[in-house]
Design goal:
about 375 residues, mainly beta, Porin, 16-stranded antiparallel beta barrel, 3 helices, about 10% helix, globular
Length: about 375
């Protein structure tokens, strides 16, 4: 089954057209922040927060229910450092822990440590423009694969990020080292097909050079990468990604991404359209639609996959949000990856600075050539501590 550009365009426009849906992090465009560089050291988002991002989380986003009115938002921002109220000079240490409790009918409930990272940002100049970033993290072993002969060789601790950021001019920035690939909306949910399904998930960092051009109403990213140099050489995906985002209005940011890469076994091509739209303070819509093309070098077999998702974040009160997520995955080879429609509903809570809770109910409806499969529900409770 061949994909037609008209079909992709129609589905993408359909996703972007649901104006009553809205999730978090990149969707903090609802607070007026379009560029990820405002709050993150990495210009494309993700990873450690800079000083402004930490202060913003304390002073504007998280609930202040545990603080008396005598403590102002400005004071909360001043207490956002690793040691509250303490100046550590040019060093910015950080810790992140994310725990998941997963409930699936007819399956044992289980607790999973999804993330346990330690980071250190070193400001190389007084203006905090040139930065050395180091991050070390935990990777859980996959469940149910202890019989795999390589199971004991799976690393559980990895260097997740290590790069240098340099300001080249008023508009140009350069990043060199190991980091996430610049592509699409960098959602925190790595189970989305737009992350893990495209090879840009939680543990898919790559060594390379990233150039970023920042202007008032647009940003350009050019990422040339050589793969993860800690992997075996035949597995390393070498390639190039491009991403361009622009602001058609004060409330919106639209973008296009493309990526080509290959190793000794596969050739990958990814393309996507994406957008974010503010619905007022704390509320936002984000959507992405695209195609994944995989080609085996050994057999010349191609697998074409089309995907799309729509996420929503609706504020209830300060620090508390209603979340919704609708995702579809459709491919021409039914034997390789299941076609899915996934609906997620739940809540995102920041009851206090440095903390996050998520409660989600997720419905997965698989479908094949012979018809729709059986619905599968799962329930998730997440706790996230960021220090």
């Amino acid at each position: 089954m061949k994909f037609r550009i008209s079909t992709l365009a129609a589905l993408t426009i359909s996703c972007l057209g649901f104006a009553q849906w809205v999730q978090a992090y990149p969707d903090f465009i609802g607070y007026g922040y379009k560029s990820c560089m405002t709050c993150h050291y990495n210009g494309a988002g993700g990873g450690a927060l800079n000083d402004y991002g930490r202060a913003l989380f304390h002073a504007e986003i998280s609930s202040r229910a545990f603080f008396p009115k005598s403590i102002t938002d400005e004071r909360l921002g001043e207490l956002s450092g690793f040691i509250p109220g303490k100046d550590l000079g040019r060093f910015r240490p950080g810790l992140k822990l994310r725990e998941l409790y997963l409930v699936k009918p007819d399956n044992p409930n289980r607790s999973i440590t999804m993330q346990a990272d330690a980071s250190m940002a070193v400001h190389l100049d007084a203006d905090q423009e040139n930065v050395l970033m180091l991050s070390f993290g935990y990777v859980p072993r996959p469940f149910g694969k202890k019989s795999d002969p390589d199971y004991d060789e799976i690393k559980t601790w990895i260097s997740r990020e290590h790069y240098v950021r340099l300001k080249m001019s008023e508009n140009w920035w350069a990043f060199g080292g190991m980091m996430d690939k610049a592509f699409g909306i960098r959602q925190v949910d790595h189970t989305l097909f737009s992350r893990g399904g495209l090879g840009i998930g939680q543990n898919d960092q790559t060594h390379g050079v990233l150039l970023q051009r920042v202007a008032e109403t647009n940003e350009l990213f050019v990422h040339l990468f050589a793969g993860n140099l800690f992997q075996k050489s035949e597995l390393r995906h070498k390639g190039l990604s491009l991403m361009y985002e622009f602001d058609p209005s004060e409330s919106a940011r639209l973008g296009v991404s493309g990526m080509m890469s290959q190793n000794e076994y596969m050739e990958w091509l990814r393309m996507a359209l994406h957008g974010r739209y503010s619905l007022g303070k704390g509320g936002a819509i984000s959507a992405e639609g695209g195609v994944r093309n995989d080609k085996s070098k050994a057999t010349s077999v191609k697998t074409d996959t089309m995907y799309g998702y729509l996420q929503s974040q609706l504020p209830l009160t300060r620090g508390y949000f209603f979340l919704s997520n609708l995702q579809f995955v459709f491919q021409n080879s039914l034997s390789n990856f299941p076609n899915d429609t996934v609906l997620s509903l739940g809540s995102l809570m920041f009851p206090a600075p440095r903390t996050e809770f998520r409660l989600m109910a997720i419905l997965n409806r698989p479908w094949k050539a012979e018809g729709v499969g059986e619905d599968a529900w799962q329930y998730q409770a997440q706790f996230h501590l960021s220090w």
